[in-house]
């Protein structure tokens, strides 16, 4: 496994998003693409696994160590919170104006 330090946030996201630290480490050690992150000292490591793409947000700390700050898989795995959020987003995008109002109300009420 790649020599990485993992934040608790990143470890939590692995569990929540239902993919392994081994897969995520492969994204770091053998990425398909590396692009600058949105924060100044971060990079996004992307690795394709079939139809899915794993993205790691990696920072370099003051000792020069690579630190995984966050990670996700796209499209999200079935049954995860990200999957249902993605479903709601697409439903909202396709909805009529009145349906959008109903979806907003429904989400505000926690349904």
Summarize, please.
With 111 residues, this protein is an alpha+beta fold. It has helices at 8-17, 21-29, 81-94, 97-108, and strands spanning 5-6, 33-36, 42-49, 52-60, 66-74.
List the topology elements:
Layout: E1 5-6, H1 8-17, H2 21-29, E2 33-36, E3 42-49, E4 52-60, E5 66-74, H3 81-94, H4 97-108
Parallel strand pairs: 1-5
Antiparallel strand pairs: 2-3, 3-4, 4-5
Radius of gyration: 17 Å
* Global outline: elongated
Share of residues in helices: 40-55%
Instruction: Count the beta strands.
Output: 5
CATH topology of the largest domain: YaeB-like fold
> In terms of quaternary structure, what is this?
single chain
Order of helices and strands: EHHEEEEHH
What's the total helix number?
4
* Residue-averaged pLDDT: 91
**Largest sheet, spatial ordering of strands:** 1-5-4-3-2
Largest sheet: 5 strands, mixed
| Proportion of strand residues | 25-35%
Name the structural class. Answer: alpha+beta
- CATH-scheme architecture of the largest domain: 2-Layer Sandwich
Indicate the low-confidence ranges by residue numbers: none
Straight-line distance between termini? 41 Å
CATH class of the largest domain: Alpha Beta
Number of separate structural domains: 2
